[in-house]
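Researcher: Go.
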Amino acid sequence: MSLKILVTGTAGFIGFHMAETLAKRGDQILGIDNISEYYDTELKYGRLAASGIRKTAVRHRTIVQSGIYPGYRFICMDLLDREELFSVFKRERFDVVCHLAAQAGVRYSLQNPYAYIDSNITGFINILEACRHHPVRHLVYASSSSVYGLNEKMPFCTSDNVDHPVSLYGATKKCNELMAHTYSYLFGIPATGLRFFTVYGPWGRPDMAPFLFTRAILEGRPIDVFNNGNMKRDFTYIDDIVRGVVKVIDRPPRENPAWSAADPDPGSSRAPYKIYNIGNSVPVKLPDFIESLELALGMKAVKNFLPMQPGDLTDTRADVDDLMREIGYAPSTPVDEGIRKFIDWYRDYYKQ
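Model: Structure:
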């Protein structure tokens, strides 16, 4: 049975892929994005165009029908526009909300903290209030591996303490999890938070390493390698992420009858609430990742080694055992293959 799904952030990287995948399987999708200028808006319009939404048709608060997918519509609006958001919820009566819109980026949070409060806190409370007054079967929302902060135990597990974030971005994502639990407990909203681990692939974000490194190498510029390359990342290919999120959408959480206040599980609750890691669970050393890029490009990188940046994590690795066991999540894309696919897209899109 097809679902009526709101997907926020559909001009963004993950949101674009989610909207397409859900539309292809026959769901009725309304995508929302404010097309912010955090990075190149032409890339965002390019994603929309690839899913049948023409740039010339996009107008503020106006619903645009995809020319490719009959079940996909898009509206350009800001989640801070509470009145319009509530009007959309009242009119559309969604079955599911897949909330992926956010102000992303660890480093940018050092420069413009208010953007994170506006988008990630105020925008999220507007989503929660809309779900409260116009009930949905399931709210799925994006959290982040950044919530683990000072935690050094590997792999990162949802049972770990996440009370010591090292970036405002991570702090806002931790706050989202707390807010979602409160609304789940008080108003019975089934809510699942997904802690994404370094997602990459075609149509990716230009502020992330695969994009930054590829562009610099092709232009003959040095790449900035932080912490002198002594870092590991749980790089997760976009197709694996999307398949996992779709499986989660179809499995709203239930109350955990074994949950105990004496020994509380942070990843579940007496409320219909769940937290999952969603990653590849195979961390890659940064020098090895760069070497894979070099092989795919057929070019060597000039490396500019730098100290650790404030807010970054040295290592990440996701414990995804519960997601595999409960949802059937099974990441299958090795990093070499994922990088080749990204490079193929990049060369085609930018004609390089």
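Model: The first strand starts at residue 4 and ends at 8.
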